[in-house]
Amino acid sequence: MRKLLVIGIGAGNPDHMTVQAISGLNQADVLFIPDKGEKKNDLAELRRQICDRFVTNPKSRRVEFDVPVRDLPVEDGPAPSYRSTVDDWHEAIAAIYEGLIRDEIAGDGCGAFLIWGDPSLYDSALRILERVRLRGNVAFELEVIPGITAVQALAASHKMALNRIGDSVLITTGRRLTEEGMPDNAGSAVVLLDGKCAFNTLDDKDVVIHWGAYLGTPDEILISGRLGDIGAEIEQAREEARRQKGWIMDTYLLRKPE
């Protein structure tokens, strides 16, 4: 039976690669590298650099594939519309994954997908592969190799603990932060997938924010302080970074005052 590895490769720094992840790369006959277009070529290039640095298996080969673009404007619409759009997007990617597994991996071979951060946290690869499995057209064994997440990289770069003593931490998205605000049952919230600076929607400007972009890379940007004092600075820095690179990957932690 075909074997498929889903390997977490860290938040952007090749040094985030674990021994297990490196072993997985060298176990695979085929390494799948997604291409998200010219504006995000840096993301594919980093995967290539990781392969160049760590892969020593002479039989290994790379297969690059195009990733369909999701219709982003629907994020402004109601939740059902958003979920429907994401579902359609995942279905299109599932068809691509199925073809890659069927056509590129031998019947007893091994392939690997290289996933930013950790496959279990706000990444859709595992859900999409489950769609492929349920289709029943191609059988495969699955192994997941964890990686360092942006959440861990953010805490490390800001030299802080994620939680306060005896307190909870919520991991959420920019969309949910806009809809729900800071959680009542957690003193800290880590926000991912925020393309619109949702922290600006919070009424409490005494919340402390620790923000980071391109974490662990030479382009890393870090800003922290009272939200009311630096919210506009973060928004400006984020927009300038996006303009220069054509894309941005960022996250932040919000903490209620003591």
Automatic annotation (TrEMBL):
The UniProt record lists the keyword Nucleotidyltransferase: no
CDD domains cross-referenced by the UniProt entry: Precorrin-6A-synthase
Protein keywords: Cobalamin biosynthesis, Methyltransferase, S-adenosyl-L-methionine, Transferase
Protein's GO biological process: cobalamin biosynthetic process; methylation
Record flagged with keyword S-adenosyl-L-methionine: yes
Cross-referenced InterPro entries: 4pyrrol_Mease, 4pyrrol_Methylase_sf, 4pyrrole_Mease_sub1, 4pyrrole_Mease_sub2, CobF
Name of the protein: Precorrin-6A synthase [deacetylating]
Species annotation: Rhizobium loti (Mesorhizobium loti)
